[in-house]
Amino acid sequence: VASGSSRVLADLPVTPGEIVVPLDETSMVVRQSQPWTVRVAPYSYPSGGVTVLSGSSGFVANAGTTLGEWLAFRRNPNGNSNQEMNVLDVVRRDGSSRTTIQLPFFAAPGARNPQFLPGGRELIVAERTGRNKETGVYLVNVGTKSVKKLFAIDDTNPIHFAVSPDGRTIVYTRTESIPTRLARFDISTLTSQPRK
Question: Fewer CB in 10 Å around end: N or C, the chain?
Fold first, then answer.
């Protein structure tokens, strides 16, 4: 066990049906079930905060991917399941901006999917695995709403991936054979990220 210390930041007045995910030392995402809402709130919640997403039907993932002032959420607009998430909502934490992107595939569940590239203009999204089909990894441009398949692997296990801090490469697992392999995909020529 590592040495260090922890302290309680706040006692949260969470009600049944709410799920809380911390964003940083001062704020959190609060997701309420049907009808669903997603709020960015201070730890003094229920006072304060702003609703960044809401709906009367469908399902939104509990955790959002963050990059500075931006959050990205996977959403299923048609049912109450995390297995058919084919919409991305990219929102500013203060609720002042929202972009909704329709995906031509179902996004994989998991707290690390999607992931922003540096600059916040693009995201990497892994496809949900299915029987007897390739699983893809996609580049999504927030401004143009374009979706481009980067690569696919013939694997029925989820793809676990990480984006390098400079946004130039993706490292991911391949489990279609034994032993599990770690692979790298260069995206530096495919993104709108500034070159270094």
Answer: N
